[in-house]
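::Amino acid chain::
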Amino acid sequence: MSVDGLGSTLLREVKVEGLDELLRTLRYTHEIKHGLLFTGQTIIDRLLEAFVHSDTTGPQHNIPPNAAPALSIDHGRIRSHQVPVLELVGTSSCSGKTQLLYHLVALSLLPSEHDGVSLDGRSSAVILFDLGNNFSIIRLRNIMMNYVQSSVGARSEPTCMETIDRLVRSSLEHLYVFRPQSSLSLLATLSGLQSYIFDTVSHVSANRQVGSVILHDLDAFLWQDRLEDAEDQTHDGRTLQKTTLLSSRFRDMVAHLRRLQTDFSCLIMATSSALSTTTYTRIEGLMMPTLPSHLPNAWKSIVTVRLVVQRDSVRKFPLGVSAEEAAREAGQRREAVEKSVFLARLDWSQSDNWKEETRNTIKALGEGWQFPFKVTASGVEFKIED
């Protein structure tokens, strides 16, 4: 082989990496060593970590403290690593999914500590698309105030409350809420989001990581798009195209979200409402909840974890109960409703696609993987006392 030929062969074997890939590798290596933090809520992060480790690093994720990270990580897998996509699915109205979302947004915005007390916050920026126009900033602020106050054990002294109020206000400056009125408006906003983030003059979060991009009420435009589908596809009783407008728009949305994840390594989170009822399937000897998604395949293909959120039901009045009897039970029923617990369960409908390692890790976390929580005027409580 000639010198030129040998040089060409060797040159083709050289793998070129950009600075962005190098920084992504270093960041992911650091997160693997110190624990992956996606939401700040430990019980959810442990579940997401089970999927990430299974899909990217396999058994190599237990890195010894003194090991050289570059020798412990498969860089080819890191380059293909995707931050998880989390979907919260409510089984009915008042299911608790929005309240759980408030809590996760609060953790993403708040700092990691305040006055030397851990807050489990991420000090990140949050981009939220309020597609159903029902996200309450006032409710979020109250949850953040109560969360910080309970974490630091603050008293109701004016000086202390003013300090917490300043902390919460400064954190809320890094929440960016968009309210598109159609799926086309959503796509247009997503397409210009990268330019907006890089334009540091337009916002105050240049020194913060984009922690999450959230689509609240992802199915808000579902029926509007299906109606447009029906109008566009049908002519004289014949279907004119196989690819629906709805699926096309969801594919475009997913492409935009994937680009944002690649550029900013941010968590994608969405909420939606179920159209069917939860069923239970026996999987490996356990009864696991399954809730098929009604959203297009383009979205279902990128979701890492679906959590089915529902409220424990309170016994209804029996048939034939009189008005007097109902009035006598009103106080007890009100108390029962206030004490009722919400439950978030892992949806197992796509478990056939999970790796064996993922299944084993989830089973080790608990039967079927679920957690209860309570919603109060102060916020969300995860420690439920009997």
Confidence is low (pLDDT under 50) at residues 56-80. The longest helix spans residues 245-264. Residues 77 and 183 are 33 Å apart (CA to CA).
